[in-house]
Structures are given as structure tokens and as C-alpha cells.
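Quick one:
INPUT:
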């Protein structure tokens, strides 16, 4: 008998969302294999945030289904939520707390025991180097620090799947390396990471799989080698998107034109 096909960490089928006349996501199908480090790339307005929001139960799809490790996100939201950690785009946090307080609060909301919460909070503060901020409230954190605190909140219940919208945006290189290290060991231990990014070099260096999304559809998906087809992800991305228009000359911008 052939082996059972593996259940993907995330399965999107016929996913669709409109905002008025704008089709943000258009009958999108995608499988994210369990244990992969998956990048979702695409131009501005491609539908990445909308897709990831629907995949994680934050935004109700107009059409289609989402399964996380075989659990239907929209039929069994509590079971699915226990499996997923999310770093949404433009996240609103309870920012009148310190970072460690926020992490503990996230753990308690997830139903963890207080002693487990305290231990994990301390581990996450150390791993993400959030201890130096002392009693500073999250509202006074830099953008990168806020992102790290939000990532810690997404990790505290030990999810199997992490979905991260632009996790490296506004994060300094040292913090980005720390975050990458944490995500890599999460994947090495059997977890799955899905992240969206505009930065091809980052996806190429970090992810093993990639999907190129444009106009709410998947243009190409597979391992980074398959999708980049020996030409580098940046170049493939431009090719898949049709190269774009030629350069527009801004003659008035020439210093000599005044
Ligand atoms: N709440 C909303 N109301 C109206 N239109 C929306 C809303 N959210 C997204 N859109 C539209 O849906 C389309 C897809 O947006 P989305 O934010 O998902 O793209 P994205 O790939 O994440 O873009 P970016 O890389 O710029 O963040 C865009 O045309 C956007 O203007």
C-alpha cells in the first residue's frame, strides 16, 4: 500500500476574500508541509496579510477552507488556536504592560499554569534579550523591541505552527539574528514556520520553501531551489511578475534642471 500522504501543517483551499470591489485573495490554494520554513513573498497589495489573517482565524474568509494539522480553523477554532502562534501585521498589544508582563499575560490567556508561565516568560525574555528594558512599558518600546515581545507572546504556548507577518521589519540585525536562531531551532525540533516578507535575500537565506503571491493568487510554490530555478529568487520574482514597467524618468529631480 502506498504511504499515507503527510498532513500539511497548513492547508488552504479555494480561499477567497473581497473588500468591496477589491479581490484581495482569489481562490488561493496552498499546502505548507509540516516541518518546513516557508516564506510567502509578493508585491505590495498581493494579499499576503489577508491570506495569513484568514489562515490564523483572525479574518473570516468569504470562500474556502483552512486546516492546521488537519483541524478546520473555522469549525474548531479553539483546537486550531492551540496549535498556532501568530505574529500579525500592525498588531495591537496591551502595551501598558512591561514586556515580561505581556508575555505572562499571553501565557495565562492561553490557559497555562502560573508556574509554567513564569518559567517560559523568563526563558523567552533571555532568548529574545528583552531583560534590559527593565520596567519600560511596551508602549515605549522601539518597533523592533515591540516585535520581539509580540513574538514571545506567539511562542509562549509552544505552538506547532508559527505564522509571522513581516517578522523582521524594523528589527535591527542583531535582534534579527536572534529571532532567526529561535525560528531555526523551532523548525529543527519539528515545528513549522510561515513568514511573509518583501526581502527576497532574507527568504532565500532563511526559508527552505517559498510561495510567490500576486493579485491574491499563488504564482509559484515549492522549495526555494524549485521556485528560483537556478536564477536567484529576486530575478525569478521579477520574471514571475512580468518584469514591471520600465524606469520612469523624473526629469525635474535632476539637480541640474533647476
Ligand atoms: N481592511 C481592508 N479594507 C479594504 N481593503 C483592504 C483591506 N485589507 C486589505 N485590503 C486590500 O486588499 C488587497 C490585499 O492587501 P494585503 O494587505 O493582504 O496585501 P499584502 O500582500 O499584505 O501587502 P503589503 O505587502 O503591502 O503589506 C490590497 O488591495 C488592499 O488594499
Amino acid at each position: 500500500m502506498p504511504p499515507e500522504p503527510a498532513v500539511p501543517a497548513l492547508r488552504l483551499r479555494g480561499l477567497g476574500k473581497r473588500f468591496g470591489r477589491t479581490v484581495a485573495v482569489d481562490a488561493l490554494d496552498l499546502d505548507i508541509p509540516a516541518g518546513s520554513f516557508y516564506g510567502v513573498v509578493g508585491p505590495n497589495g498581493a494579499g499576503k496579510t489577508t491570506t495569513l489573517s484568514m489562515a490564523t482565524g483572525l479574518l473570516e474568509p468569504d470562500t474556502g477552507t483552512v486546516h492546521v494539522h488537519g483541524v478546520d480553523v473555522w469549525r474548531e477554532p479553539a483546537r486550531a488556536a492551540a496549535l498556532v502562534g501568530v505574529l500579525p501585521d500592525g498588531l495591537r498589544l496591551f502595551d501598558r504592560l512591561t514586556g515580561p508582563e505581556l508575555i505572562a499575560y499571553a501565557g495565562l490567556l492561553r490557559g497555562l499554569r502560573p508556574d509554567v508561565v513564569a518559567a517560559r516568560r523568563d526563558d523567552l525574555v533571555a532568548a529574545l534579550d528583552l531583560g534590559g528594558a527593565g520596567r519600560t512599558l511596551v508602549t515605549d518600546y522601539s518597533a523592533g523591541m515591540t516585535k520581539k515581545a509580540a513574538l514571545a507572546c506567539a511562542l509562549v504556548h509552544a505552538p506547532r505552527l508559527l505564522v509571522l507577518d513581516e517578522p523582521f521589519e524594523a528589527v535591527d540585525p542583531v535582534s534579527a539574528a536572534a529571532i532567526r536562531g529561535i525560528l531555526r531551532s523551532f523548525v529543527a525540533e519539528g515545528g513549522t514556520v510561515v513568514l511573509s516578507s518583501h526581502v527576497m535575500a532574507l527568504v532565500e537565506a532563511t526559508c527552505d520553501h517559498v510561495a510567490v503571491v500576486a493579485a491574491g493568487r499563488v504564482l509559484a510554490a515549492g522549495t526555494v531551489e524549485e521556485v528560483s530555478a537556478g536564477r536567484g529568487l529576486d530575478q525569478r520574482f521579477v520574471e514571475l511578475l512580468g518584469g514591471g514597467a520600465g524606469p520612469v524618468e523624473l526629469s525635474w529631480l535632476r539637480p541640474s534642471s533647476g
